[in-house]
Structures are given as C-alpha cells and as structure tokens.
Amino acid sequence: MDDKVFLITGASSGIGEATARRAVEAGYRVVLGARSVDKLEALAEELGGEERAIARRCDVTEWADQETLVGAALERYGRLDVALANAGFGAKRGFLEESPELWKSMVLTNVYGCALTIRATLPALRESNGHLLLTGSVAGRRALPGSLYSATKWAVTAMGEAARLELNGTGVRVTLVEPGSVDTPFFDQPPKGALEPDDIARGILYAVSQPAHVDVNELLIRPTLQEN
Predict the structure, then answer these.
(1) Strands annotated E in 116-189
(2) Is there a contact between 82 and 5 (Cβ–Cβ < 8 Å)?
(3) Which of 11, 150, 176, 219 has the most CB atoms around it within 10 Å of its CB?
(4) Buried/exposed code over 62-97 (b: 16+ C-beta within 10 A; e: otherwise)
C-alpha cells in the first residue's frame, strides 16, 4: 500500500472535514480523529471505508487518545506522511465573558492539544520525511480585543516556528495555516463574505503537494472582504 497517509484531528466538520475530502481526492488515505464519533465514522465510510479512511475517537487533550490515533494509522496503513493538528474552538471576546471552565478547556484543546499532536506524530513523520501542519488563525498574528482565543492561536504560531526550527535538516516540512473568517461551526453567524472550509483545504493541499525542497511555512488566507 504505497499511497501516502494523512492524519487530521478535528476532522468531523469544518476545515478538518474539507481537508479529508480533498486529501482522499488527491490519493491519500486518511486517518480521522475527533470527539464526534458518529459524524467521524459516517465521513470515513463516505470516503471509502477502511481501504481509504479510518476514524478514531480522539480528545486531543488526552495523550492516550493521541497515541491511539497515530497507532491506528501505523497499524492499518503502515506509515504516516502528513499530520494536520486542526482541533480547536473559540470563545467570546472579553475577559469578563465565558466561564473559567470553558477558558480552561479552550486553552487545553488549542494549545496543549496541538502540542500533543506534534509529539505523537513526530516519530512517524521523521521516518517518512513527512509534513506537519498546524491550524492557527489570523488571530494568531494580531491580538484581538479581550480575546483569550487569540492568545491560544499566538501560541500555535510560536509552536509552528519552534517545530520548524527543531525539524530543520530532518526532511520534515512544517506549515502554519492561518485562516481568516471561515463559515464553520466556530461562528454562530458567519461574517459576510466568509470563506468556505474547502477554500482552506485547497490551500493545505497546495502546501503538501510542493516538491520536497519547498517548505511553505505559512499560509495566511483571508476572505477578499475581510479588512483585518
């Protein structure tokens, strides 16, 4: 089985789901992780079943789940070539908004969860001279008023560069993906002119399709109508 293998966290909807569809279209086999098992399994079946796609429940804040997800990729397909650390969610702006419990969950998911995905996938990516991608945000390039979410995405920006520096010379490429406004479950009401998840997925497939000597370090993708 020579087809390359693409692992995605947060794969049950939005950018993760769209990327899974594009990856299979491009010839990858995919390993899908998310907490929403029913949606995940339905997507895997739609993408071709176990020959092309497998689904595993994965809470990215749990190290055992991350190990299980990577282990499933290696057991079923024997390799791992691309990993997209995509799981994350947001919160209302304002340091007097939301509950401390939601804040804690968001920080653990967006920051710690991303770090665990890097840790879990790195040995296999080194083996394959693979590609690591992290879903950041425009909010990880500029601070937003009262936004703890923005702070978590600044952390992802730093992790992307830290991983690139650590992996320099190993053959593993690192790409930070920074979407602007995208019509996903992130928004109750998406901004006018927001991108579709597939717009980001096409950018991701562009980055991973480059020759081995080309490392697209950052993909900043905004809607044409977005000012900031």
Answers:
(1) 131-135, 173-179
(2) yes
(3) 11
(4) eeebbebbbebbeebbebbbbbbbbbbebbeeeeee
SS3 content of the chain, % helix, strand, coil (to 5): 45, 15, 40
Comparing CA positions, the residue from 85, 125, 116, 123 lying closest to residue 5 is 125
Tokens 């945000």: give the residue: 137
More confident residue, 227 or 33: 33
149 annotated active-site? yes
Annotated catalytic residue, options 28, 77, 112, 149:
149
Distance between CA atoms of 178 and 219, rounded to whole angstroms?
Answer: 6
Element (H, E) at 9: strand 5-9
CA atoms within 13 A on the CB side of 12: 19
Which tokens in the block code for residue 75?
């057991």
Please give the model's pTM, rounded to 2 decimal places. Answer: 0.94
Cα separation, 137 vs 103, whole angstroms: 18
Widest pairwise Cα distance in the chain: 53
124 membership: H or E segment, kind and range: helix 113-128
